[in-house]
Amino acid sequence: MHFLLNLMFLVTAIKWGDWKNWRTYYPTWLFFIGGDLFKNALLHDHPFWTYKETILGSRILFGHLIIDILIITVAYSSTLLIYLGKFPTQRLKQIGWVLFWVAIYSLIEFINLNYLNLIEHHNGWNMFWSILFNLVMFTVLKIHLEKPLIAWLISLIFLSILLYIFHVPSWVFK
After folding, report:
1. What is the pLDDT of residue 107?
2. Taking residues 89-95, what's their average pLDDT?
3. Which of 3, 26, 85, 149 falls between 20 and 30 A from 137, CA-CA?
């Protein structure tokens, strides 16, 4: 099923993505995937969520990291080409655009969690935290495009708050 979801992202990016300016978005893409890979390394033994494949391609997509690499490669790339490429200039439309993408990512997660069994939450994580995470993520991705140091600072503060709230044990960092 992850193959189909990522194919949908790719098709939408082919149609609506800002391919001619992909170099402009490349540093933000590295920031996006770097944060995801850092999360995977840091929380490997204490994850907030894990992906799994239960419907199609389970022999190829046999674990969280493999699925996450597919998502990083296809869905995140596609998302940035559309999200940043079509970002509006008016403040109210900008807020709507961010909320639109938060809704898309949150709805996909909700369906994958409750109906398709493609994701599991762990260690106190739930849909509320996913929605908040998506809100911060999409806001920070836009900030990163123009002010990367501020985006890094916000990300580190948000990560520290999450580690504190979820009582991530110190043995995780060894």
Report:
1. 98
2. 97
3. 3
